[in-house]
Write a structure and sequence with these properties.
By secondary structure, the protein is an all-beta fold. Helix content is 0%, strand content 17%. The protein has a domain at 1-118: Leucine-rich repeat, LRR (right-handed beta-alpha superhelix) (Alpha-Beta Horseshoe), CATH 3.80.10.10. The chain has strands at residues 3-6, 14-16, 30-32, 50-52, 70-72, 90-92, 110-112, 130-132, 150-152, 170-172, 190-192, 210-212, 229-231. The protein has a 13-stranded mixed sheet, with no helix packed on it. It is elongated and about 65 Å long. The termini are far apart.
Amino acid sequence: MGIYIKYNLQEKSIKFDSFDKIHDYDKVVYIDCCSCGLISLPKLPNSLKQLYCQHNQLSVLQELPNSLQILYCGFNQLSVLPELPNSLQYFSCQHNQISALPELPNSLEELWCGGNQLSVLPELPNSLNHLDCSNNQLSVLPELPNSLQTLCCNYNQLSVLPILHNSLNHLNCYDNQLSVLPELPHTLNYLYCFNNKLTLLPELPKGLLELGCENNQLINKIKYKYLKTFIYI
């Protein structure tokens, strides 16, 4: 264990035993303090671009610098999050106690917020290509961006899904209360929709490689020659 920092993202990280021993702290661009038993973080430097603070005992995060591009703060005790900077591209807050997310920046490409207490999601930015909101209390999803490639919304309380766009490659929607699926995009390769209330499936795209649909109420027998892996109903 230890705190690993960088002054340049292309350089190797330097290990410190504590934050107060870091020299030129205001020039740090990278901090990895995972699994250090931390209950709080110091004020973050304005130069910071990447912060990894998973697997601690954090209940609050300091104000985030405007330069931050990557934030991984999962597996803590967070119940609320600060305002997210407009520069943020990758954000993971999995397995905390968060009941609401702040406004999401327009630059965001990946969002991992599974394992929280979310009942609603904010508006999703058009830049988003990966969304994992599994293991929450969601009964509805917001409109999905055209750029989205992966959607993991399993283990929620969803009874319907929004329109799926022709960018989507991977859909996990199992363990919900779905009785119907929307039209499936032709780009879809992986579909896992088991443990729902489905009686029919929509037309399957020709590029589909894997399908998991067991433990539903399907009345149509599926014969699909393109499937690489088929988990039967």
